[in-house]
Amino acid sequence: MNHQLPSEKEIKNMFKLFKPLFWLNDPVFYGAENIPDEGPVLFVGNHTLLGVWDASIMWFKLFNEKKIFTYSLADRAHFHIPVWRELGSKFGMIEGSRETCTQLMKDKKYILVFPGGAREALKNKGEAYQLIWKNRLGFAKMAIQNQCTIVPFSAVGAEECYDLIWDSKEILSSPLGMLLKQFGVRKDMVIPLVKGVGLTPLPKPQRFYYKFGKPIKTDTFKGMHEDETALQTLKTLVKSEVEEGLQDLLKIRENDPNKTLFNRILSKMTKK
After folding, report:
1. How is the chain split into domains, by residue range?
2. Phi, psi of 26 (to 5 degrees)
3. DSSP secondary structure string, 65-97?
4. Which fold has domain 8-161+205-270?
5. Residue 6 burial (CB count, 10 A)
6. Segment 131-142 mean pLDDT
7. pLDDT tens digit sequence for 178-228
8. How far apart (Å, rounded) are the C-alpha atoms in residues 73 and 214?
C-alpha cells in the first residue's frame, strides 16, 4: 500500500499539540501487553461521543510506547472535510473499503475500526457507552478472510467530556432537521449540539481509561468468511469482550481517587 508515513519530526510536532490532552486527561491503560508484537492486528472497540480525543490519545500511546503505526478505517465523509482529511490521512486515516482493509491485513499492519461508525460517535441522550453495531459484520468477515487477529478494546471517559444539549434525534425532529433532510444529509452524520467547559466547545478534563482485551484468533473460523453464523458468532464474541471491558473500566473509574483533575493536581502537589 502506497501510504506515505509521517516523519519522526512530524509525529513529534503533532504529539506536542496533543500533549496538553495527556496532561488534562491523564490516560490510564490496561492490558497493553495483550497486543501482539506482529500484525496483522485489528483493534475493534467502542466509539465514544464525537470520538476524536480519546482515539488520538490511543494512537499516540501505541506509537510512542510500542512503535505501532495504527491505520484507522474511516467513513468516506471524513475525506470531504478540508484540512482534516489531509491531517488524518497523514496519520493513518484510511477510507474503510474492503479492498483497503484486505491490503492492510496482507501487509500485516495494525488497523483500528469502530463497527458502530458515525451513528455510535454521534450518540443521542441516554446512549453513553452503548454499542450500536446493528448487523455490521464487515470487520468479522475481513478478519476471517485474511486470518487477522482481533484485539477488542474499550475506552471510558470521553463521553463525559461534553454535555448533550440537542442530540441528533432532536435535531432531525426540528425544522432544521427537515431542512437537512432536503439537502440529503445522512441521518447518522447529524452532529449533536454539545457544550464542554461552561458554554464553550472545550472538552471537560475527564480522565481517560483504556483496556485491551486478550487477542482473538480467527484460525478456528478459517474459510468461513461467507458463513453468516460464523460471522455472527465472532461478532458476538468481540462485542461481549468490549462490553465487559467497558464495565470493568467504569468500576475502575468509580473507585479511582484521582479521576478528577483537581484530585490529580492535589495528589501531585502532596506527593513526596
Report:
1. 8-161+205-270, 163-202
2. 40, 60
3. HH---EEEEE-GGGGGSTTHHHHHHHTTEEE--
4. Glycerol-3-phosphate (1)-acyltransferase (3.40.1130)
5. 16
6. 96
7. 888 888 888 888 889 999 998 888 889 999 999 999 999 999 999 999 999
8. 21
94 Cβ neighbours under 8 A, 6+ residues apart: 3, 71, 72, 73, 74, 100, 104
Q: How far apart are the C-alpha atoms of 20 and 17, rounded to whole Å?
A: 7
Amino acid letter, residue 180? L
Four-residue CA torsion sign, 41, 81, 126, 259:
positive
- Which amino acid is residue 157, in one-letter code? G
Q: What is the pLDDT of residues 52-68, one digit of tens each?
A: 888 999 999 999 999 99
Question: Cell triple for residue 247?
Answer: 464495565
- The strand pairing partners of 166, in sequence order, are 193
What the block records as the C-alpha cell of 237 is 464474541
Residue 213: phi and psi, rounded to 5, are -80, 175
Please check whether residue 54 is in contact with residue 155, taking contact to mean a CB–CB distance below 8 angstroms. Answer: yes
What the block records as the C-alpha cell of 60 is 499516540
- Beta-strand pair 110-113/70-74: parallel
Predicted pLDDT at 270: 81
Residues 107 and 85 sit within 8 Å (Cβ to Cβ) = no
- Residue 152 forms beta bridges with which residues? 44
Cell of 131: 454499542
- Specify the pTM: 0.92
- Average of per-residue pLDDT across 87-110: 90
Q: Find all residues with CB under 8 Å of 248, minimum gap 6, and list them.
A: 30, 154, 211
